[in-house]
Amino acid sequence: MPNSSPIPLDVVALLEVFRMGLVTGLWDQQAVMAWADARVLAEQEPPEFVLDLALSGHRTRNDVVAALEGYIRSPRPAESGRVVLGLLHQQYTAGHLPLQRVVRTMDWLQWHGTFTEPERSFLAGVDDEYELAMAGVRGPTAAAVEALDQYVRWLLSFYEPLGLDNPAAWAQLVPEIASQVQAARPAHSSRNPQNGS
């Protein structure tokens, strides 16, 4: 018999990470189903939402996003956008994602995630910087792209501790990371390619 108890907050945050990843195209619904399948196999009485997600093979990406939205409480979990940045860090530094995909996702997160003002300011315009670099507006394309690449790696490195393997730690890590980003803010002008350096 399925369990219909309230969804724990750390699981709600994980569901929001899955939703954000689906919306931005970082993964497809198979990733969500694989997570749900693992929970079904591991639990005596899996929650109803887990069974629902495990059986969503016939659904489109948009249908799975809508199902996830139904399980996510308002306001949206603050840590989820930061976790997606942590996953971007993992995928980008491993060479699995191109810079263009990373900056597009960072831009989307800036508008749709929950971040502090310093975090949002670091994310702001990074996709525009990519376009300017590719157009040669920032000087030789290779040098401008390299500068942006270094900036993106630097920024994403703050979120490296956040991954799918440690959702119970997210609530504790997020304030620490936000504090580190706040402390890094004065250095922003020397690192951000938007400032012409």
Describe, in plain words, how this protein is organized in 3D.
- The model has no long low-confidence stretch (mean pLDDT 89).
- With 197 residues, the chain is mostly helical.
- The chain is globular and about 60 Å long.
- It has helices at residues 9-24, 29-42, 48-54, 61-71, 79-93, 99-112, 117-123, 126-134, 141-157, 170-184, 188-191.
- Helix content is 65%, strand content 0%.
- It folds into two domains: 9-71, no CATH class; 79-195, no CATH class.
- It contains eleven helices and no strands.
State the main characteristics.
single chain; mainly alpha; 197 residues; 2 domains
Please provide a brief summary of the model:
This protein has helices at residues 9-24, 29-42, 48-54, 61-71, 79-93, 99-112, 117-123, 126-134, 141-157, 170-184, 188-191. It has 197 residues and is an all-alpha fold. Helix 1 (9-24) packs antiparallel against helix 4 and helix 8 runs antiparallel to helix 9 (141-157).
Topology (elements, then pairings):
Elements: H1 9-24, H2 29-42, H3 48-54, H4 61-71, H5 79-93, H6 99-112, H7 117-123, H8 126-134, H9 141-157, H10 170-184, H11 188-191
Helix pairs in contact: 1-4, 1-5, 2-3, 5-6, 8-9
Distance between the termini: 61 Å
Secondary-structure-derived class? mainly alpha
Shape: globular
Task: Summarize the amount of helix as a percent range.
Answer: 55-70%
Total of DSSP H or I helical runs spanning 4+ residues: 11
Gyration radius (Cα, Å) is 18 Å
Query: Which residues form runs of ≥5 with pLDDT under 50?
Result: none
- Biggest beta sheet summary: none
Number of strands: 0
Mean pLDDT: 89
Secondary-structure element order, as H and E? HHHHHHHHHHH
